[in-house]
Design brief:
The protein is built from twelve helices and 20 strands. It is of the alpha/beta class and 423 residues long. The protein folds into three domains: 160 residues, Adenylosuccinate Synthetase, Chain A, domain 1 (3-Layer(aba) Sandwich), CATH 3.40.440.10; 93 residues, Adenylosuccinate Synthetase, subunit A, domain 2, CATH 1.10.300; 157 residues, Alpha-Beta Complex (Adenylosuccinate Synthetase, Chain A, domain 3). The strands form five sheets. It has a ten-stranded mixed sheet with strand order 9-7-5-2-10-1-11-15-19-20, with helices on both faces. Strands 14, 16, 17 and 18 form a four-stranded mixed sheet that branches. Helix 3 runs parallel beside helix 5 and helix 5 packs antiparallel against helix 6. The two termini are 24 Å apart. It binds guanosine-5'-diphosphate, 6-O-phosphoryl inosine monophosphate (IMO) and magnesium ion (MG). The site of guanosine-5'-diphosphate (GDP) has 22 residues, from helix 1 and strand 3.
Length: 423
């Protein structure tokens, strides 16, 4: 019966993939509900490391159904390639269902995404992943996008694809940019559609049937609350609702079915791409966090910007998401720090504030107010129980929970499944 939702509570890359993999031990179905292959969700099992972009992170648990919901924007070529790679690694991809209502991303979306980024003035660049996410969601809102069901009906897909591609080619011509080779692109799309067709279904029916049958369903968020199109640091955001509420629209699940809302929080903060980041460290400490935390984008390989834990942003995020279970990841990355800073308030133009400003300009001007706490200077990577954690690590966790006004349920001290325990 219960449906749980797991979301990123910062700017993405909090460790959602790892947590979904851990939690699906007790799940029957995982549903992605927004975003696209801008996401990079890492799951490490034994010596193998997988990075998933569209396939739900429940794929490594045999028998778990993996749904890509209507709210996701899907590059079919990227999805087919990801599924084929997983097949090669021995995974059963027959459990993957793609919503017939999901919007599709094609070459022209990716191309326009890249052009917009390249031509934007400094200060206006978003630093997107160039996967065509924004343009595909724009087409969805503009009601001219192509949806998943057409992958099963090439007689309809072909003219729709040509019509859209020709429209975009006119735009490219006007910008003096080389058009896409529509015939060549169509060949790949047609072959891909054939591969994916049997996976396309009305996932809303599948998920609601699972709920009715008493199955455990987990919704997998991508990105993080601060990248939410409504509540994030607009315009430096992605183009979907990344918050827990997005799971209802993006998977077709009524709010009455929701039980727990998991929020994944990294023990410090990172951000990829442009936009304000109050606790960013542009010094040796930031470099140290990046090095120890391996903070390089799972999708684009870009170095992630790093900084101290921002409790102001995290508290706002927990409030909007309604987080009742926190999973704190990457505690081990702080193991060797003498002292650790926590941002407990901002100073804006000389005034102390304790809420996230809605304007990106204001957020760019705030100065973090820090509380300094002692580090624990001990290896936590082998801890398998809350009681094994050093006292200062426990105090740090308790302070975070207090500041964001939620309860810690899981602690992660390394990338592997076994480096996880319930608080
Ligand atoms: P996601 O997008 O939220 O799924 O996160 P990413 O996969 O993009 O980035 C998280 C990175 O941290 C991945 O490389 C994970 O393997 C790794 N990771 C997850 N949890 C932990 C942890 O507790 N400690 C360490 N050291 N690494 C972790
Ligand atoms: P996961 O699910 C971190 C960022 C991009 C850029 C902004 C808009 O792995 O946490 P987009 O391509 O979506 O139009 O880019 O959003 N971004 C992410 N940052 N993790 C992600 O996903 C992200 N997906 C998009 O870097 O700043
Ligand atoms: Mg990621």
């Amino acid at each position: 019966m219960p449906v749980d939702i797991l979301v990123g509570t910062q700017w993405g890359d909090e460790g959602k993939g790892k947590l979904i993999d851990v939690l699906t031990r007790d799940c029957d179905m995982v549903v992605r509900f927004q975003g696209g292959n801008n996401a990079g969700h890492t799951v490490e099992i034994g010596n193998d490391k997988f990075v998933l972009h569209l396939v739900p992170s429940g794929i490594f648990r045999p028998g778990v159904s993996c749904l890509i919901g209507n709210g996701v924007v899907v590059d079919p070529v990227a999805l087919a390639s990801e599924m084929r790679e997983l097949e090669k690694s021995g995974m059963d991809v027959s459990v993957i269902e793609l919503s017939d209502k999901a919007q599709l991303i094609f070459d022209y979306h990716r191309k326009i995404d890249g052009i917009k980024e390249a031509s934007a003035d400094n200060g206006k660049k978003i630093g997107t992943t160039k996967r065509g996410i924004g343009p595909a969601y724009s087409d969805k809102a503009d009601r001219c996008g192509i949806r998943g069901w057409m992958l099963k009906d090439q007689a309809k897909l072909k003219p729709a694809f040509y019509e859209q591609a020709e429209k975009y080619n006119l735009l490219f011509a006007a910008k003096g940019v080389e058009p896409i080779d529509i015939d060549a692109a169509w060949k790949i799309v047609a072959e891909t559609a054939q591969y994916l067709a049997k996976h396309v279904s009305d996932t809303v029916i599948s998920v609601n049937k699972a709920i009715k049958d008493g199955k455990n369903v987990l919704c997998e968020g991508a990105q993080g609350m601060l990248l939410d199109i409504d509540h994030g640091t607009y315009p430096f955001v992605t183009s979907s609702n990344t918050i827990s509420g997005g799971a209802c629209t993006g998977a077709g699940i009524a709010p009455t079915h929701i039980r727990d809302i998991w929020g994944v929080l990294k023990a410090y903060t990172t951000r990829v791409g442009e936009g304000p980041f109050p606790t960013e460290l542009l010094d040796e400490t930031g470099e140290r966090l990046r090095r120890i935390g391996g903070e390089f984008g799972a999708t684009t390989g870009r170095p992630r910007r790093c900084g101290w834990f921002d409790a102001v942003a995290a508290a706002y995020s927990c409030m909007v998401n309604g987080i009742n279970k926190l999973a704190i990841t990457k505690m081990d990355v702080l193991d060797q720090f003498e002292e650790i800073k926590i941002c407990t308030a901002y100073e804006l133009d000389g005034n102390k504030i304790d809420a996230l400003p809605s304007s990106a300009d204001e957020l760019a001007r705030v100065k973090p107010v820090y509380e300094i706490v002692p580090g624990w200077k001990a290896d936590t990577t082998k801890c398998r129980d809350y009681n094994e954690l050093p006292e200062n690590a426990k105090k740090y966790l308790a302070r975070i929970a207090e500041l964001v006004d939620s309860k810690i349920a899981i602690i992660s001290v390394g990338p592997k499944r076994e480096q996880t325990f319930f608080a």
